[in-house]
Amino acid sequence: MFISKKLILSTGISLAIFANCTPEKSPFDVSPADSLDPKRMEAPYPAISIPEGTDMESPRWKGIDLTPQPPVVPVSANEQLKSFVLQPGYKLTPILSEPQIREPAAIQFDGNGRMYVLELRTYMQDIDANGELMPTSRISRWEDKDNDGVYETSVIFLDSLVFPRYVVPFGKNTILSMESNEDNVYKYTDTDGDGKADKKELFASGLGRSGNVEHQTSFLTWTMDNWMYSTYNSRRIRWTPDGVIQEPTGNPYGQWGVTQDNYGQVWFQDGAGGVPQNFNLPIVYGNFGIKGQYKDGFREPFSLVKLADFEPGMRETKPDNSLNNVTGSAGNDVFRGDRLPKEIQNKYFYGEPVGRIVRQVNTEKSEGLSYIQNPYREAQSEFIQSTDPLFRPVDMATAPDGTMYIVDMYRGIIQQGNWTQEGSYLRTKIQQYQMDDIAGNGRIWRLTYEGMERNTEKPRMYEETSAELVRHLSNPNGWWRDQAQQLIILNQDKSVVKDLEKLVNSSDNELARIHALWTLEGLNSLKVDMIRKLMKDSNPKIRIQALRASESLYKYGEKSLAADYRTMVKDSDVDVAFQALLSAYILNIDKVEEFIKTSIKENPAQSFQVIGAQLLEKMAEQKKTAATQFAPQQLALFNKGKTIFDGYCSTCHGVKGLGTPTGGGELIAPAFSGSPRLMGHPEYAVKTLLHGLTGALDGKEYEGVMIAMDSNDDEYIASVISYIRNDFGNSGSFVTPEYVAQLRKETADREGTYEFDELIGEIPKALTLQDNWKITASSTALQGVGSTKDPSYAFSFKGWKTDGAQEAGMWFQVELPKERNLTELQFNSGDKEYPRKYKVSISSDGKAWTEVATGEGVKGMNTIHWNADNPARFLKIETLDKAEEPWAMKQLVLLAR
């Protein structure tokens, strides 16, 4: 087989590895050291160079060992096994390793048990993070077809990605994913069955974040309550048959890892903070400070690697040169399988790759609050330790076979390039042990226990009917229950409602009852009489789940449940009583503040006293900030719009903007929360209210009809649209009465109601950046560690800017693959780097240009539009003035009719 030198460089797989991997020699026996320069391992070793002027007496440097040291040498997976220190009875087995995979950072299993591997192939390939945002990462899919426990069959499901943030199986041959510095989540599907995604669809927007690749959104996770949570985003999203909706939540304070326990409590894993976050209460209720939730000594790791090679330096180093404070945690899992001992089932685990450990977390519950500790602390140990400096556990997962899988990046550098720059402590330590060139590896391990065989049943959920899936809700392995629940909901097959109700009401399996309850909720088939019956169940955990699920019914208009919350706050079980308080708070039932105050007086439990007081503080703060959230004119529109919505629109669209169900569980009218139509170009909403709307929306029929409301004045229409775009978890631009007046005038001759397809055809649509767009600029600056001079970053959160101050005549150009009726563009330039004056020109050939608009830049978001009379392939933005600051753009959007 011919392998080009270019391929070797791009994949990091050396010919030596391929040559040594023979049928007689397992890949797990092949050492990555075979691909390294043998001279690096010869003495004398390189001397350590410290930048002139370094304060060697500072806490970071004082006491550092600078003597030349032998290099750290990577070993084969089977050799690495000798480095692990496990708790008695446990065993690790490699199931996948380099050269088959490179830089694995996360794994997920789909409904047929196939394993998707997120491969971050550009992560710290050298000490300066060069090429970090090159489009060479991938998502591969692996299958164990012969059922021997080793994943031998693979396909590259999705390739050429820019540092992807997660992989989420989402039905048969479909995943969700998002790239770095982007704002959109896309759904990727393999439509022809060849194992490779060939269809890309927008799934949701508004979940992105710019900046360092370690500080962006990760781990979009579908949880028991049928919502999806990710790190960094103070919102949750949810797939429904009518579209993706969203709701505000507290701040996750997570960095790399989102998981849930058997009862739907979502845990987020902090990165630099080194500890789990938001594990006490569901994040939808907000953030709360709980003194002592990390028990004394929780932050101390017990590492067997003693190189002092961590960013905090000597100030967080034990006398033996091991880490004394968790500092770089990543990846998490509540183990919910059935093929490891019961004492670790439903326990939380996470990796600390700087300390080279996997930590188990035990939870102690007291008066409704949770407190966590490392159960091996007194023995000064961890659940898993390693003496190999290259062991980098970054994710773990409960597998379909009932065991735990651990993702090991197996590399030299685990901190991003911002912390390894010239003159840094960390760079010095990395070079001392020559770890900067150990990259391109990765292992996935299976954790088993002596005497407990893995489950060899191969999942085949994509070939099963909804009725067959229902039986998996009783499986002792939480992975099976989660997947079955998700697929039944995606199927929206209500033929199983009776089976689910029977499971909820008569099963002796507590967890099966809970999953069946939430599956009914996801099918929009919950009945209030069932909920009230479950609120009286003898099992307090069932009562808690009934309260949480009832929140959906309340949001859809069943306000009589407020009386149940007032009753259940007196429940004999403190956890149940406290859940009733939380449900009343988040739903903002009538006189909720008085209700909370009374409950605090009557219940001395810590949950009521500590969290209850903070709820009252939040409510007081919300009152103070409500008046300053918007400018005076915007606030007037918002308040008037809320009055209109509550008194008129909520009848069909729901009191919380989620739609009002019909008797059959369908919606009378579409939801507003997170609606891409309502949150897209405001022309859609204005024309809908002015002239009405009929017909199926994106193929979905609704019982209600949107009538024309043009008899109301411009301020009425502007206010209700502005309110909808800024409540229900939405955050959009306001619509002015002047804009409504403009569209009213332009459509004055219209007769009759809009058909949906007709209206959509008139609305400017945002064009999504594609690989075949050609983006050029007269000047482009190099931005940040690992960056390239790529003007296409203007379309992302990362952004583009000129290499120097603004000068008249600087330009930014987009060449499209075909002509479009361009009509508008939007971009964000921040507070200072906006173009002072600029013009927009279009062209069909890139030679003859027509000026279509001029504008003066402003701080933040800039919008400029023109009549779309001339189709064009080229668009150019040019500065017309000079300024001391560069010209910058991010989140650039082109719109066309």
UniProtKB/TrEMBL annotation:
Domain Cytochrome c residue range list: 636-728
Cited Pfam families: Cytochrom_C, DUF7133, F5_F8_type_C
Residue ranges constituting the F5/8 type C domain according to the UniProt record: 755-897
Gene Ontology MF terms: electron transfer activity; heme binding; metal ion binding
Organism domain of life: Bacteria
Name assigned to this protein: Glucose/arabinose dehydrogenase, beta-propeller fold
Record keywords, A-Z: Heme, Iron, Metal-binding
PROSITE patterns cross-referenced by the UniProt entry: CYTC (PS51007), FA58C_3 (PS50022)
Keyword Iron among record annotations: yes
